[in-house]
Structure formats: structure tokens, C-alpha cells
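WARN  no MSA supplied for this record, continuing single-sequence
INFO  ligand: zinc ion
INFO  echoing inputs
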Amino acid sequence: MDIHQVRKIYGIMALTAVILVGFAPVVGMVVSRSLFIEMLILGFIMAILSIIFAWKKYRCPYCDEILRAREPMPDCCPNCGARLRE
Ligand SMILES: [Zn+2]
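INFO  complex generated
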């Protein structure tokens, strides 16, 4: 798996977490309180999974330096200077 795919998957996971948590109050009001809690729990699990995923996989392929997933992807590795973008 290359780093661009990792970043994309992380982005999808993080977005899913934000959507779940963000819409939970609305769903809770409209549908049911138990669904609100389920969405919150699911959102938090997804957030934790995305963080673990980024921490394990979102690294420089050359020196294993952890890249910051919250920031835009750097052109070069901040540790060894290897180019990460073509
Ligand atoms: Zn590196």
C-alpha cells in the first residue's frame, strides 16, 4: 500500500467519524436516543481506528518517520528529505 492510498483511506475514515458524531444529535432528535448513542460510539471507534491506522501506516516509506496526518502531505519527508510526491 503506498502512502497516497494510506492518506486517502485515513481521510475517509476521519470523515466518516466526523459525519457520525456530527449528525448524531440530529438523528437523536428525529429518530431515537439510542441511535444517537450508537452513532456517537461508532464515531468514536472510527476516530480511534483512523488514528491507529495513520500511526501505523502513515510513515515515510524510506526512514519510517511518522508523518502528521492532520497536516497537508509534505513534499518531502521532514526527517530524511526523501520525496513523497512525484
Ligand atoms: Zn524519511
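The two ends are 16 Å apart (CA to CA).
INFO  checksum written, moving to next record
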